[in-house]
């Protein structure tokens, strides 16, 4: 369990392996950020392929860890850890190809939305269930994947959509059977690594420089509203209900 990192012919495979659904702990988010940063700084690496083992690509933060920790340390840690991991993908010195399967939820949207290229397995669904947990976040990254009004609907309803819709919008490069996602990502990666490492790294930096939205500042703004909701008490009740597998009380 944890992370697996291998590099061959300029392609770095970074695999998340956190059963049962690849929900990351606070430490896990920071470790992922460090691994992404290190991979990008490795002069032998031309592309990073980020994928996951087991069930689902990523189910966001480990809510059980958060509810089993006294005070707000886990909450603050999860928010900072997510920001670090999302930022590490965005700032990675080489392109990051995100390979998704089964489902992408919450923090997984942040990873997916900040990546450069996406390959998905057929039947994959993506969603932001944050409002169910009394939280907000990663709409910044969802907005990089879907049109504005669809993004709003997904945030308000917490309902997922099939990745085939993203392929139709051009956000996802290819949707293929599950056993073909890694070979497909490797094919795209080889089409990148055939070019000068220096040129590709400059291209990544330049593309980030012309982005119309500052993703770090935008996500930080979202986090501020999440902290307000936590102070109100509604978030704790929603997370307790999730852990206890019951319906939350909606007194507010």
UniProtKB/TrEMBL annotation:
Translocase keyword on record: no
Record protein name field: Putative Enoyl-CoA hydratase/isomerase
Top-rank EC class of the record's enzyme: lyase
Taxonomic lineage of the native organism: Bacteria, Bacillati, Actinomycetota, Acidimicrobiia, Acidimicrobiales
EC number per UniProt: 4.2.1.-
Species name: Candidatus Neomicrothrix parvicella RN1
SUPFAM superfamilies per the UniProt record, alphabetical: ClpP/crotonase
Keywords: Isomerase, Lyase
A GO term for molecular function: isomerase activity
């Amino acid at each position: 369990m944890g992370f697996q990192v291998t590099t061959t012919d300029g392609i770095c495979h970074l695999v998340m392996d956190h059963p049962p659904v690849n929900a990351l702990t606070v430490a896990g988010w920071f470790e992922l950020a460090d691994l992404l940063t290190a991979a990008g700084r490795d002069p032998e690496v031309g592309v990073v392929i980020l994928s996951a083992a087991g069930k689902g690509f990523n189910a966001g933060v480990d809510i059980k860890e958060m509810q089993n920790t006294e005070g707000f340390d886990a909450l603050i840690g999860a928010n900072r850890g997510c920001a670090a991991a999302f930022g590490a993908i965005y700032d990675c010195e080489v392109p990051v190809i995100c390979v998704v399967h089964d489902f992408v939820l919450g923090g997984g949207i942040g990873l997916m939305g900040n990546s450069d290229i996406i390959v998905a397995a057929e039947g994959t669904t993506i969603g932001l269930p944050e409002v169910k947990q009394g939280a907000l976040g990663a709409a910044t990254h969802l907005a990089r994947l879907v049109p504005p009004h669809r993004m709003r609907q997904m945030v308000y309803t917490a309902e997922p959509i099939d990745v085939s819709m993203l392929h139709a919008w051009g956000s996802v490069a290819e949707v293929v059977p599950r056993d073909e996602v890694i070979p497909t990502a490797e094919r795209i990666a080889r089409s990148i690594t055939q070019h000068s490492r220096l040129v590709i790294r400059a291209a990544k930096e330049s593309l980030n420089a012309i982005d119309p939205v500052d993703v770090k500042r935008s996500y930080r703004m979202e986090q501020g509203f999440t902290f307000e909701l936590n102070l109100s008490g509604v978030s704790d009740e929603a997370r307790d209900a999730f852990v206890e597998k019951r319906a939350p009380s909606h007194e507010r």
